Amino acid sequence: MMISTKGRYALRTMLDLALNDNGDYIPLRDIAERQEISVKYLEQIVSALSHAGFVRSVRGTGGGYRLAKKPEEYTVGMVLRLTEGNLAPVACLEYDQNNCPRSANCITLGVWKKLYEAINNVVDNITLADLVKNAETAKNTKRDKK
User: Fold this and answer.
1) What pLDDT digit, counting tens, does each position of 81-122 carry?
2) Looking at the whole model, is its pTM more than 0.70?
3) What CATH number corresponds to the domain at position 86?
4) How far is CA 95 from the centre of its chain?
5) Which residue among 56, 112, 122, 144 is the one 20 to 30 A from 86 at the CA level?
């Protein structure tokens, strides 16, 4: 399984909004500049985030984007599932009911199930708040080394 550029950029965008939250709306151009993402591509990403209710937007002067909820209320899994869809490592696990004709006799199915559980366990137990904390720790460590 490979996370697409869209998924990675969506997570970076959400993190950027969390890290730079000062109560004001953040212009898209500022996010694009900090994250080194084209404004055009970022527009597509924030559109999906906005339609899902993850971010709020305001047009015009003083407009931009901000998180709709607190960083603690978003998991990495939520953002990735929005952009990537199901995170199953194999097609037969994409839906609740496994329709694969080989599933009853598939020796490897247990491996894929464990991998899928591990993926979900990781992405569903890391919040944006955790990533903000990691970013602050990294920033402090970098500063201490100087």
Assistant:
1) 999 999 999 988 988 888 888 888 899 999 999 999 999 999
2) yes
3) 1.10.10.10
4) 21
5) 56
